[in-house]
Design goal:
Layout (H helix, E strand, L loop, with lengths): L2 E10 L5 E5 L2 H10 L3 E7 L4 E6 L3 E2 L1 E3 L7 E5 L7 H9 L3 E8 L4 H8 L20 E12 L4 E7 L2 H8 L4 E5 L5 E5 L7 E4 L5 E7 L6 H8 L4 E9 L14 H12 L4 E2 L10 E3 L5 E5 L16 H17 L6 E6 L6 H10 L3 E6 L5 H20 L1
Parallel strand pairs: 4-8, 12-15, 18-19, 19-20
Antiparallel strand pairs: 1-2, 1-8, 2-7, 3-4, 3-5, 6-7, 9-10, 9-15, 10-14, 11-12, 13-14, 16-17, 17-18
């Protein structure tokens, strides 16, 4: 008898459906290849394990079927009894379970269909140096998956700017520099990224990477049970022909970023994991914070700790702290012009100027173009003062 044990995840999809996800990409590939679309499945209440055999009792759904990492999904509400579904619906969390596969596939099949994932060995003759004005620096994660004889490693980035590279099917070579950052380089011998989008449209970009990119101490962490670690991924916006202004998360940020680029101001996306404002000016490391929060019509002269005023006050104080602690040379705060009528806002702005610059706008018409011109004017003034 061919018996294989894999991990699964049990969760309440909604108030009616309980789904079991089988965490085995080789299994999903095997089922797609062999055109197996149904299983027999039962739940052992004593061992709390699922047992799956060949049969036609339950239909199999495959998620991410067109990608390199498909997963099997089964609806199992009817075989769980009453208590377990109630628990799952109450806590709304995925519960780890063991799944026993009987007479479905062999160990050799698991290895064969796992090895369909391939990676490109890095070419260490390629330079990892990227000119500073072109640098895009983002957070990434390296995950480890154990197969029978070794580990597989996957690099994952959750950022819209990588979605564009994945959609273009750019061939990538992944390298690593002396600081441990992962470097993306365009290379005809490389591989393309895989792209997955959540139901809300958030992109997940991933690729299997060579074991030679993993440091010995990182591998030791994986051997001791660590599942992933965070790192940085660096690439050139010029090399990939990217328009950075398209990839800010909020509409006002994108509009101002585009206007700044038109004024020949070099900007970058803030680094995840660091306390940076919405837009960073590359040449000086100055920061720009944008908030279109409108003031309420009541308590005009009061800084309500639970209202919009507290948010504006916090942004002003944040700018002041970053400048006084020499984190940034100067700081721009773009806020709704309605706040200009508040005396405490005016007084606070006067106290923290000139290195914290507050710019009022109504966020309509060509507001971004006008604000970008004012920022450029201030930058030139700061430059003269520095000299």
């Amino acid at each position: 008898m061919k018996t294989i044990t894999i991990n699964g995840g049990l969760r309440a999809k909604n108030d009616r459906n309980i789904v079991l996800t089988l965490y085995s990409t080789p299994l999903a590939r095997f089922l797609i290849d062999k055109e197996i679309k149904q299983f027999n499945i039962e739940y052992d209440h004593l061992t709390k394990k699922f047992i799956i055999e060949k049969g036609n009792q339950r239909k199999i759904s495959i998620e991410r079927k067109n990608e390199n990492h498909p997963l099997c999904i089964l609806h199992v509400s009817r075989i769980l009894g009453r208590n377990l579904p109630k628990e799952l619906k109450k806590d709304r969390k995925t519960r780890k379970v063991e799944v026993i596969l009987k007479n479905i596939l062999s160990d050799k099949d698991m290895i064969k269909y796992n090895n369909l994932i391939s990676y490109t060995e890095p070419d260490y003759k390629i330079s990892t140096i990227i000119p500073e004005p072109e640098v895009v620096n983002l957070a990434c994660h390296i995950s480890c998956f154990r197969n029978k004889n070794s580990f597989c490693y996957r690099l994952t980035i959750r950022h819209k700017i990588l979605e564009e590279i994945a959609i273009k099917k750019e061939k990538i070579m992944i390298l690593r520099d002396k600081e441990g950052n992962f470097i993306l380089k365009k290379n005809g011998f490389g591989r393309t990224f895989n792209l997955h989008k959540s139901k809300k449209g958030h992109p997940v970009i991933y690729m299997q990477i060579s074991p030679s990119l993993i440091k010995e101490e990182e591998n030791e962490l994986f051997k001791n049970g660590r599942r992933s670690f965070s790192s940085r991924i660096i690439f050139s916006e010029k090399e990939f022909n990217l328009d950075i202004s398209k990839h800010f998360s909020v509409r006002e940020e994108r509009e101002l970023a585009y206007a700044l680029v038109k004024q020949n101001i070099n900007i970058r996306i803030p680094q995840m994991g660091k306390r940076e404002a919405d837009i960073v000016i590359k040449d000086s490391n100055a920061q720009i914070e944008i908030t279109n929060l409108k003031p309420s019509k009541i308590n005009r002269n009061k800084n309500n700790a639970h209202g919009e005023g507290a948010h504006i006050n916090a942004r002003l104080c944040e700018g002041f702290l970053r400048v006084t602690k020499n984190i940034v040379p100067y700081y721009f705060l773009i806020i709704n012009k309605g706040w200009s009528e508040y005396r405490w806002v005016k007084e606070t702005c006067n106290l923290i100027q000139p290195n914290v610059v507050t710019i009022y706008t109504d966020f309509s018409g060509d507001w971004a173009g006008l604000v970008a011109k004012e920022i450029l004017h201030k930058i030139k003034l700061f430059g003269k003062n520095d000299n």
